[in-house]
Amino acid sequence: MSYISFQPKDYFNTKLYTGNGSDQAISSLGFQPDWVWLKGRSFADNHVVVDAVRGTNKYLHTDNTQQEYTSTSPNENVKSFDSDGFTLGGWSAINRNTETHVSWSWRASGTSGSSNTDGSITSTVSASTTSGFSIVTWTGNSGSVGHGLGKKPAMIITKSIGATGGWYTTHKSLSAEMQDNYMFLNTSDANSTNNDIWGGEPTTSTFSVGSGLIGNTTQVAYCFTPIKGFSAMGSYTGNANADGPFIYTNGMKPALVILKNTATSDSWVMFDNKRPNPYNVIGSILQPNTNIAETANSAFNIDFVSTGFKIRGTDTAVNGNGNKIIYIAFAEEPIVSSNGVPTCAR
Predict the structure, then answer these.
(1) CB atoms within 10 A of CB 44
(2) How many Å from the N-terminal Cα to the C-terminal Cα in the chain?
(3) Is-contact 135 220, C-beta < 8 A?
(4) What is the DSSP letter of 322?
(5) pLDDT given at position 9
(6) Do 138 and 80 reside in the same domain of the chain?
(7) Which tens digit of pLDDT belongs to each residue from 92-128?
(8) Is residue 340 in a domain?
């Protein structure tokens, strides 16, 4: 019996491409995306995120606090989300001529969202209960907001659209109660506590936002709940040893893993199965909170295997001794696929 009835690549995929400085269709994604995260690999420039709820001509940067920017130039933005990918304009941050780039794409409802009145604040939501992912926008910072997942979120990433401010992020492993804990996706800061940020514990239908969020402005949230065989959110304790912890990822072989040491001022770190080296030890990293180019460093090494990932590096960002390190991961394959055949290790 398979864990999931769909292929992970129907809801998440990583694509590598080389920029051409002009219009370019990125195809063979496998679905029409609702959230696309883009980063230049071979050069330093901002991370760029766009989504179907806000519109493809509106982007944010995970590595800074700038408010949403609306492109007025058709050559500057993601021009469209397509049935099997997306089309880029010639903006150098996402399509620099001859340079290498990476994109991570997620599918939600496949629409620009619909009104949700589950909370005290009406939200616009594009959600997939199948893959456990939703995009939520709303205006206000005191009340409850519907997220559309049908399950309690395990990770929420929030950014003000209409004002400068940090990417407030909470995760189920930060504490027994998510409501008092947050980190910033745009910084290397350790975990902080403030009961005015979230205002209450998430439920199966809503999450709460407190007065500590930036202003009474429009906000966007990317919400995740684990789906066995497709996604996993959790934590592990580092040991500072090259024979580091093994992390079981909820019945799947990872395609993308994002880590953050909650106790230190180390950067967030991203690994995926497409950037070198995609087999066995992976040491090519990007950092959501910085604009640096892709870096290969054996001190960050991890292995992707059929049941999870194994820490091989000794850097405190991935393996700080005695430190809690949170992660979110998405699947390449479930351990048992829809054809009933177990997934093989690399």
Answers:
(1) 10
(2) 22
(3) yes
(4) T
(5) 95
(6) no
(7) 999 999 999 999 999 999 999 999 999 999 999 999 9
(8) no
